[in-house]
Amino acid sequence: MMNALDFIYPEYEVVRDAAKCVSCRVCERECANGATVFDAKSGLLLTDDSKCVNCQRCVAMCPVMAIKVIKSGNGFRANGNWSRSTICEVYRQASTGGVLLSSMGNPHKYPVYWDRILINASQVTNPPIDPLREPMETRVFLGGRGSGVERDKNGRLKCSLPPHLDLSIPMLFSAMSYWSISYNAHEALAGAAEELGTFYNTGEGGLHENFYRYGKNTIVQVASGRFGVHGEYLNAGAAIEIKMGQGAKPGIGGHLPGSKMAGDIARTRMVPEGSSAISPAPHHDIYSIEDLRQLVYSLKEATGYKKPVIIKVAAVHNIAAIASGIARTGADVIAIDGFRGGTGAAPTRIRDNAGIPIELALAAVDGQLRREGIRGNISIIAGGSIRSSADVIKAIALGADAVYVATAAMLALGCHLCRSCQLGLCSWGIATQRPDLVKRLSAEEGRRRLVNLFSAWNREIKEMMGAMGINSIEALRGNRLMLRGVGMSSKELEILGIRHAGE
Ligand code: SF4
Ligand code: SF4
Q1: Which terminus has fewer CB within 10 Å in the chain: N or C?
Q2: Contact present, 32 and 432 (Cβ < 8 Å)
Q3: How far apart are CA 53 and CA 461, in angstroms?
Q4: pLDDT tens digits along 450-460
């Protein structure tokens, strides 16, 4: 008998229009969560709303648009302090005694500063540039620029710059490990990066042997668990990223249970089948900037000083000081990940409460490095919920050289943001390893959609640059005069380093 104390009314209801339904049972086949089942006795399709995660797969696949998923009509008595989700979380924890887990990015209503920043447009004295007639440069080089022009004793220019990444567009796909996303999703990202002239990132799961061929468009990651890290791996990519932190779960490691460690996932991670893979929260050999510098140079040594090294950190309270230290480690790029960044699984409380918005972190870091005169030592990649080309433009004007994009890329692959990746039952074939679900995502179709997305963004970036009277992304980098804020306090404007609209 059901315990009334454990009962939570489902958050969503699957509503089927009997007048339209042709009983084709597509919804039953498509639901990875078993929310729709066919009852042979009654000949009816029955739904168990408690299993529905609102992934919208059945809605999209129903041939006659007979299904919709709606927010449940059942609600608690209205309470400005205790929302439905807060109450239900207490019930769940009282029932299980467990830590709440979730995925994707922080869904709470913190300020999204991108939406409070407006870009400039040229009028009269500084005319706009027509991107259809004039060349617009969106190519970006990531890596240290040196502090100025240097000449040898004969007066010849010294041209020995540190290694660089050459991007045709100012956007990269951010780290997602093989396991947290499927083989087909990885292949789509790798293929799209190759076609677009940019980079995707292995995450900390190693590099599947089939993807070595995408090496020149791959960033290989070294994280605290060192899974899948060996000499061939380090040399296979175009750059190496040391992951110190992640925006969605700063200060938190990861855990891949032994039950899921099998086949090519175990082989790629170099972990015995059936063993759990625990990524510690810290790197156990890094407790200072000096330790980090040692790892940077170990990786450079291992790769003949030919690959740029990126250090990825979560945006946290004292990020400007942390970045200042990182700029002195010999790393070529710092990647900062804001607290709205996505993840395959994270403790809910950490995801929703730790870290700071990328907009403030980015502005603080760029400002600090400029004040210290070391901005040229290192490039900045900003990530953590870049949702559109407008966010890209604003990030670059706040000081980024390029941006990392993950959630928007997942949306392009079919993700419907049900925030249930941690269950491993993604109906869209992305955050799953179940073979029947993985094959729902065509790597080729995914590649095409990712190329479309970034190509469209790049066209829009050129249009916005043209409207600002700028014809090169270089001229936009850190150009805060192009930005104005609306509805912000003077402290927020001060941190962002921009003026209020009307000024
Ligand atoms: S979980 Fe997805 S496929 Fe299943 S009923 Fe809900 S929306 Fe439909
Ligand atoms: S990747 Fe899949 S499981 Fe994760 S949020 Fe998107 S649709 Fe849901």
Answers
A1: N
A2: yes
A3: 35
A4: 999 999 999 99
